[in-house]
Amino acid sequence: MSLPDLKKKLDKVGCGFCLAKWSQVTMHLGTGMTHSCHHPSPHKIPLSEIERNPSALHNTSFKKRKRKEMLEGKRPDECNFCWNVEDNSNSFSDRVFKSSEPWALQDFEKIKDSNWRDDFNPRYVEVSFGNTCNFACAYCGPQYSSKWVEEIEKYGGYKTEHKFNNIDNIKARNEMPYKHSEQNPYIDAFWKWWPNLYRDLHTFRITGGEPLLSKDTFKVLEYIQKHHERNSNISLAINTNLGVPDALIDKFITIAKDLCENNKVRELIIFTSVEATGKQAEYTRYGLDYDKFWNNVDKILTELPKVTINVMSTFNALSVFTYDELIDKVFEVKKKHANKQRYWISAIQLDTSYLRWPTFLSVKILEEESKQLILKSAEKALYLGMKKFDHDNYGFSNIEIQKIKRLYDYAVGTTQFDAGKYRKEFVSFVDQYDERRGTDFVGTFPQLEEFYNNNK
């Protein structure tokens, strides 16, 4: 179905009707928060609701009221991202794109004719079991990293305008994660719901924290090993920083090999992250061993030839100086692991997005000369995108290249941005960062020494 036809079909039910409100969910079980897609802010799941109904991890009374609005031809306020797109451009909003997914469309009639009070098993699920993590990436925070919690409890929040990573603010919003040693009622509810949920899943993705440090991640994998006949068509995805102990990497590979080689899942995708090279990567992704990271990438792709690795690069102000080197490294891995088991899909893909928060780490703070390096990276990816080997493309796809190119447009965009203010915030942040962590910003990023001194 074409996107224009789908929009008409959705609008016939209601101008705000979106299948994602029923068919997909992200659950942050460490904090007890949920939302159907990434545009509306997560909302708290009432404990009283999951005690009666474990599926209230998705089917909260709050979400059901929003479904009611959609079925009655209204537009929920929390979905303003899509309404702004639809009202101010000729583009299709994510309401249409998310509803166009085959796994969502298959339930169109069932959802359209449903009662807004009905519970619904989503087809696409992302779940975080908690914030346990061995990294404390510069742009992350306590909700997603126990290492960040340890630092903030010791030193307090950063002295920036918005009190970056101040735990008091998180506690005030009732978003402080459960500790891994604590009994978590949201995880208890998940396991009560899981056998029923599993049967209907198209895609299941485990995020974190660091999933390979969670016993619940391996509990999911072992469940699928034993009960795959209930749903062998599931697409399984796992986020990992690939910096956990070797024993956990080996344990994961052993289970993953069984799942893939015995067709117990339709596919397995590993999502990982890096956005620079060498010491500059290790500075930003605090806890990273850069060489170990790539050794584990190679090990996984060697032992799991059907698995795809997606490198999610959160491009920020500290990425520009070595991103072209990162492109070379990704290309090297693409070439080494090109094989016909993956057909036209590269063994490893580079998914470049730009960091918006914290604003003082955005690429927008940099001088024009530094921003020009983004174009250099895009040209490198474009050149390497033309490489082929035995009829299998192991270069960069057009999508990979375009995502790098759009970085420059974002960096030089004309939207209101107080560069002077955020440059000073940046300097204040790295000073505190170095003092707390024993790092050396200027020594690690000599390209920014003058920039640093000019904004002190």
Write up what this structure looks like.
The chain has 456 residues and is of the alpha/beta class. It has 2 domains: 3-122, no CATH class; 146-454, no CATH class. 46% of the residues lie in helices and 11% in strands. It has 21 helices and 11 strands. The strands form 2 sheets. A 9-stranded mixed β-sheet has the order 3-2-1-4-5-6-7-8-9. Strands 10-11 form a two-stranded antiparallel ribbon. β5, α12 and β6 form a beta-alpha-beta unit. It starts with a helix and ends with a helix.
Q: What are its keywords?
A:
single chain, alpha/beta, nine-stranded mixed β-sheet, two-stranded antiparallel sheet
- With helices defined by DSSP (H or I, 4 residues minimum), what is the helix count? 21
Biggest sheet strand line-up: 3-2-1-4-5-6-7-8-9
Secondary structure: helix percent: 40-55%
N/C terminus separation: 56 Å
Tell me the structural class: alpha/beta
Number of strands: 11
Low-confidence stretches: none
Q: Whole-number average pLDDT?
A: 92
- CA radius of gyration is 22 Å
Proportion of residues in β-strands: 5-15%
Q: Largest beta sheet, briefly? A: 9 strands, mixed
Topology:
Elements: H1 3-13, H2 20-23, E1 24-28, E2 33-35, E3 43-44, H3 47-52, H4 61-71, H5 80-88, H6 94-99, H7 102-105, H8 108-112, E4 124-128, H9 146-155, H10 167-172, H11 185-200, E5 203-207, H12 215-227, E6 235-239, H13 246-261, E7 267-272, H14 278-284, H15 290-303, E8 308-315, H16 323-336, E9 348-354, H17 368-384, E10 388-389, E11 392-393, H18 398-411, H19 419-437, H20 441-444, H21 449-454
Parallel strand pairs: 1-4, 4-5, 5-6, 6-7, 7-8, 8-9
Antiparallel strand pairs: 1-2, 2-3, 10-11
Helix pairs in contact: 12-13, 16-17, 17-18
